[in-house]
Amino acid sequence: MLAVILRRLLQSILVMLAVALVSFGLFRYIGDPIHNMVGQEATLAEREQLREHLGLNDAVPVQFARFVGNALRGEFGISYRMARPVADVIRERLPATLELALISGSAALLAGIALGVYTALRRDGWLSHAIMSASLIGVSLPTFLIGILLIYVFAVELKVLPAFGRSETVQLGWWNTGLLTASGLKSLILPAITLGLYQLTLIMRLVRAEMLEVLRTDYIKFARARGLSDRSIHFRHALKNTLLPVITIAGLQIGSIIAFAIITETVFQWPGVGLLFITAVQFVDIPVMAAYLVLIALIFVVINLIVDLLYFAVDPRLRVRRTGRGT
Amino acid sequence: MTKSRLAGALALAGTLAFASLAHANTLRWSSAGDSLTMDPHAQNEGPTHVLSHQVYDTLVFRDQEMQLVPRLATEWRLTEDPTVWEFKLRQGVKFHDGSPFNADDVVFSIQRAKHENADMKGLLTTVVEVSKVDDYTVRMRTDGPNPLLPNNLTNLFMMDREWAEANKVTVPQNYKAGEETFAVRNANGTGPFRLVSREPDVRTELVRNEAYWGKGLFPLEVSRIIHTPIKSAATRAAALLSGEIDFLLDPPVQDLERLNNARGIVVRSAPENRTIFFGMQQSLPELRTSNVKGRNPFADKRVRQAMNIAINRDAIHRVVMRGQSVPAGIVMAPFVDGYSKDIDQVPRPDVARAKALLAEAGYPDGFGVTLSCTNDRYINDEAICQAVTGMLGQIGIRVRLDARSRSIHFAELPRGELDFYLLGWGVPTMDSHYVFHYLFETKSDKGGSWNATGYSNAEVDRMIDAMTREVDAAKRSAMVQQVWQTLQDEVVYLPVHHQMLNWAMKDNIDFPVQSENYPYFMLLKYRK
User: How far apart are the first and last CA of chain B?
Assistant: First the structure.
């Protein structure tokens, strides 16, 4: 068990280093930040001087070593665009993204499992068919289109929900929450649906497929033969056994919800880290982009680690055999 | 029964009284970008100036008719010594924290803006000395006669010296410093609005400065301003349509018609201070991206003339810009000093003659070249380039289009790495010299930093330099005209059009478009 965890940790560190290298390398080819930092009146000499100050003229390995060294200390320097420490900016923006991701993720998980179980048990009901067809929308429509459609219907036409932003927020220490005000909760609805719809349909289809599979297995037949109640069979025996792949997928999806909130955040002007990243890309704000990519990689790595450990908790077979063959 | 009716009447009366007294007009507005910093000298950039103009005052500013009008300076004149300007300052002006505004603050602010960290220093390069004559008189000495100095002061904001000293922000924010300064997030100006709260990129709230010196001079009908930037164009338009915002600085071009047709919303427009044009590298012995070897087709004036008449500006105006542009024959906006309709002649498209010119120049079969364009900087920039690619194809010039992000384009352009490129240019000083200095002067340490054409004309350089020192307005104007004549004749650039500016707002708002794209909210009026 310990060896497995250690090996996982080592792998995680390697992944992080690779991400750092890739993001660092990428930035050398996406343009010159100098243009945006100085006005159009700046002379060539002034531009060169600024490059020198920012260390953009140093050798690449030197720049990378400096980057990793600082990143380990959580220092990503000063945002070129906002002239403020990147760590501060990200700390301010992270609560918005995490709240959105958490709410839409858990809503998607709960609704996805519930709908998945329902459609598996009532395979031929008309409601199940309707849900399955509707779920195609979630799988096939791109996020930004769903967002714009929702804005059009609920904000422009019906005028019941806000089209953008987080509305009023409450400051709890350094955590800026929108969950405690009515307007904050109202503004959360559309972005949360937009962000979670794909996940919801994915989980629902997964649960349904797994559930149908499990219901055909022998032990369910035996359980029925034993005369157990439907309820007990469906929820105690069948559902529990469908959850293993669901955990894997849900875990990975939480990571991607946070990472791909970029599109939802841009459509709804949700002031989270994704929007920060997009703005940074347009401005070639390298410190912010670097910090964002490293942060997202870290979230993915940590979630994967947790998911791996959860397997042990959920699946007794792993505990007995202790394979850990890089599942 | 009677009691409750009475109470109702009282409540109603109370509301009416409150409404008429308080003038509580909250303006919620949006734009794609946010101000970068509250430090008014750190950045020379549009959205940053928009916010600074609400909180800070300048000595002079350009009103909605683009006239230079007094603000903190009440009058200004060239003294007997033509290198010295004198500014009389407004008396009785107070900063938001209550401290008085006087000549010391002006001297301090100008010096601060000249500091090497300040992005605004480029507009003050000619100023060598600022001095206080008395509490309400300031003199500025320039390195030679500079008849247009006040034009450079429209975005130079006045800070309080004592406040800056107390908060250790006497020099502007520096990127290399590694920490943010107090002035990046706090402000103490004399302007019409006070900063209440600010979360960069999220929300900025201002309230009216009830002690503003401009009360009675300006409408000042807005009592509270809330700015929320919205990046996504569709969401920005939706926010105005749904009534969540009242004013939109940059409505998306594709939504203009829909916004104009929506009930309760109007779009107002005016020509913008920005001209879109193409530049061609004409000094290299051969182009890097062309199939023609051993000579540079752009070096031949006939080729440039041919391209100039191959571009159908009217078609671009109608199809690409949907009417939102003014076709141009010169790379300067219509209200810039030195502009006249006579020199802004839009060339008539003539494919046959263009082909003949090309053949005459020795390219009967045309040639190939790469055109570099931005796709995220100007209105429909990529579409303009696509249209021009087709038009040049008609005369045999095979253009490969390379559309990319501005961060790449504007890095390569000043380094002279492009053969054929798109550029847009605005003239903040409202004077032709600014255009000459950056776009036509021979590229050197002193000027020509955006002249990537390689164009170099010693006579033009001499005149550009001489006009900075010419105090006689008539003589200077003649020099400007003469330089334009030469440049127009040389076809150094291929002008396309002047961009249009559109502001969308609720129809109870009366707010004409200011061509520098600076909404001075103190000038905003509500329709009764």
Answer: 36
